[in-house]
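Re: [help] complex structure
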Amino acid sequence: MIAGISIYEILTVTSILFFIGVYGFITRKNLISILMSVELILNASVINFVVINKYLYPDMLQGVFFSIFIIAVAAAETALAIAIIINLYRQIASVEVKDTEIMKY
Amino acid sequence: MDITYTILIPLIPLAVFLLLGIFNKSIKPAVSGYIGVAGLSTSAALSFYTAYQYFFVHGKVDGVYKAIVEKTVWMNFTETLHIDIGVLIDPISIMMLIVVSIVSLMVHIYSRGYMKGDEGYTRFFSYLSLFSFSMYGLVLATNLFQIYIFWELVGVSSFLLIGYYYTKPSAVSAAKKAFIVTRFADLGFLVGILIIGYYTGTFDFETLNNPEGSAILNWASTSFMGLSVITWALLLMFIGGAGKSAMFPLHIWLPDAMEGPTPVSALIHAATMVVAGVYLVARLFPMFYFVEDGFALEVVAYVGAFSSLFAAIIAITQTDIKRVLAFSTMSQIGYMMLALGVSKYEGHDGLGYMASMFHLFTHAMFKALLFLGAGSVIHAVHSNYLKDMGGLRKYMPITNITFLIAALAIAGFPLTSGFFSKDEILVAAFENNKLLYFSGVLVAGLTAFYMFRLYFGIFWGKDTQYKHAPHESPISMTFPLMVLALISLFGGFIPFSKYVSADRVGFDVHLNYPLAAVAVSVGLIGIALAWIFYKKENDLASRFANSLGVFYKWTYDKFYLDEIYIFVTKNIIFNRIAAPIAWFDKKVVDATMEGIGNQTAVVSEKIKGMQSGKVQDYAFSFVAGIVILAIVFIYLWTN
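Output below.
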């Protein structure tokens, strides 16, 4: 509980963070940037978990634990994504989104 | 009496069929012939043993030859209606076992000589075994459904054997014709079985045939178009029997079936399978007799009488010796149907029934003999046509003598087997229906005439000059001829009426001398006419044929029945009924479905560009969808 700051203000911040992530995911040209946008989305949701836990159920710890799970999963997912991107780079010498559109009809 | 072992009678040929069929290529022809003969000999020995046990050891119980049934439930429908499978031993099934065993064994032995050197030798024997299995199964069936199963099986083996020379187009089309015509008739049989099952609640022969049973006593309970439904069922089943037994107008497949190898014609299309229809009527005789005061039985009698006359007339003009025999078979089966049709149930009044079974037995022997003799002749001169034959008595003495015996037997010459059975049929007809009696006597005369036309044409007549001098067939072919000739000569002395009768009690039968004299003299007139026309080469016959003119032509072309069938099926059914239905199916039903499919393909071709392959486009669509949904839900909740 932070004095002078209500839950709404923090949720506003995380919402802004979330939509920045979504915007970045849709508009970035570079695969690494897209991955970073995904991290923003995940972080927004992690903050939400922690904040809601703290403000609504201060006696419990589920939200905190869940956020640690998400961070762990996000780390694994990032490692996997980077591995895929590196392999892609070895194949086509590029990490641009426009060069990876061969999987269509 | 324990009859469990009788199950082996059909199962041994089945085992032989599987053995020869599976190891078709790896068994040497000589070995496969022996396997076939050995298997059938075992079955035949068991059949004779069963006959001995049944008639002489077990004997009569309370003065009646009781049927012995051994069965197990195979398919259960309701409490009472179930399909059983098992064996039924009673006088007529024993008699059929003996007939099938003797003829099939003789044909197996004969085929070892006749088919020698043929490419499909092993295949031929495997088919023969399949047929023997099916025929034994048909004979031993305990209920309508079991008989129907084996009925179709004999149809299949007949199809396989007619089409045995499958490289010959005529054999293939004959096989198809036989199968389609009999299959068409079997539809009637199946519908009849289902009606019986629905209205009586049982398929079992013993239950159905019990004269005091509910199936017979309650025949009047439901009627349809003026007749009892049970009568309809019996008539439908008789259609099936008429198809198998080549009764008019379903006989058209039988002459064409002669495309098969001659031993097959002897076994299937003369002695065993074609009498299945007679056997079916005999099997259900109490039903035919008691239901609706024997209306269905009367139909059987008239159909049989007409078929026998019709076929006898056609047989006179045919020049292919096997076709003459085929029409003769049809004529004689018509005789058996006639005899069944005029029969009554009890004691001596059941003479027709007994005469029919007796004629079935004797006819199987002498007709198989005629076919095997014809096969021996064809083997020697390599032709089916009378014009290529003549004077063969000098070259083939055994075939000549045995053929003569068979011809005398079928013509009803005194003391041969055919004389006794034919006489009893005529007595039964005389006692019950004079019209049918006169048609029977006429047929007897015609039979004698065309048989001796055939005999003189083959063995006497003109002295044909042969390119290769014909010679007598090997012992494997003449031995069956001699055995069958002996049975044809002396088979008439078997006291048949003591063992086989409609009520299973048995009775004594005496020759009716006046009627026998009439039949014999008519037969002798026929023989004498044939003697005048065909013994020496002369042009009497052709002059006579010319004087008959158009009638001769009609008869020669079998009264254009095949052409009528072709006209009805091709012009009326195919063009008028089937073609419009096919049009509807193609242009409406199929077109609707194809249209839906084509439109889907067109639409998807147009919209496939939406799948860009860019992951961000998909993400955008996803987010946009979520946003729209969120807006919608928020709007709904706040109102």
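The radius of gyration of chain B is 30 Å.
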